[in-house]
């Protein structure tokens, strides 16, 4: 996962916009996306 969403604090503003509270660790998210890509490439070869 790239980020953790706090659903209890997510809200709709003016009926048209979402305000989402999320926490992330940039390096952790990058590493997870890299692993997902490597797995996808491995299954397509």
Automatic annotation (TrEMBL):
<dbReference type="InterPro" id="IPR052978">
    <property type="entry name" value="GAP_dehydrogenase"/>
</dbReference>
<protein>
    <submittedName>
        <fullName>Type I glyceraldehyde-3-phosphate dehydrogenase</fullName>
    </submittedName>
</protein>
């Amino acid at each position: 996962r790239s980020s953790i969403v706090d659903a209890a604090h997510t809200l709709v503003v003016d009926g048209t916009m979402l305000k989402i509270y999320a926490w992330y660790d940039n390096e952790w998210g990058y590493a997870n996306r890299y692993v997902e890509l490597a797995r996808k490439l491995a299954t397509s070869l």
